[in-house]
Please model this.
Amino acid sequence: MNEHLKVLEIIPSYLLDLVYFLELLAGPPSVLTTDEDEVCLHYFEDCLSDYAKEEIKRIQKVLPKNKMVSELVLPLILADQDFENFQMTELLEGHRYLISSYKKSPDYEKAPKAYKKFVAKDAQELLGALMMIVAELERVNFKRFWLEKRLPQINDKIRTYEQGTDVMALLDKVNAEFHTPFLSGQRIYLLSFNVNSFVVKVGDVVVGSLRLDQSAFIHSLLECWMNPVMVEPVLKPLLRRLRKNKELAKQYKLVKSIHRTLDGYVAYSLKVAFSAYLAEKFGALEEPLTYLTHKSQRALLYYDWMTLYPKETSQALEDYFVSVVTAIELSEEKRR
Model:
């Protein structure tokens, strides 16, 4: 992240919004698209040549199972911090440069093996196919359409966020919960063709959606910021104890296909619970118990404890999580 970035900054991006438009073009029909989205998709799809439509089919074959265009392309584009200074066709045409830049970035080292395999094997083919479609879209004035129709919507939403102090003061509120600053700044790209009901962190930036109202935006940001916190290492001394907990074992059995390890499930539940606790504290979540019921049964227990015994400002988050888990384990051991 740039050194001068010390605030929460929400901005539009034509290039990143175009990636999500390509995702809608190449992906399966989405139940989350609006009527306006569908009209736009059909119009520009009709403008494409037969060759470009074949490229869309090629993209669909290249995409790994259960993966979307944005998941694969955004890390490559955002690895170049100057990406906004280029045309999309220039970026995609220089796909070897994009791939090379990404491989040199810290994010590549942390990337899953499956994504590294994609980068090595299929990334060039995908980027090449996308380049052909983008070239045709821009020849039929897609960028002018975006500037006239989509950019005003994004700017309106940004103004709504900025007029409410809750969003713009969020960094200060979060940092006030910690002994040392948790975040020095955050750039958020707000996009109109992103139909997700949550924000996602890619490298140093966050990608948001117009679908989120202010409360959902704040809560989703909190979950996004909590996600990278490494909890599993501090849980290792408790693993033997956790494995003896039959109630925890029952809960974990129900979600074993989602969470590969027991400590991974516990870590996830802690972060979800703490995000909900902060969201409620900041006025961004009205029904935390209802929300957590659908996320994690374990998180409900952790949330209840967190409301009774809040984290002290001087306490490290990981230490606090250990104290929460230990307290819950002691409580359940007494009942057994």
In short: The longest strand covers residues 186-191. The first helix runs from residue 14 to 26. The CA atoms of residues 4 and 234 lie 33 Å apart. Confidence is low (pLDDT under 50) at residues 1-5.
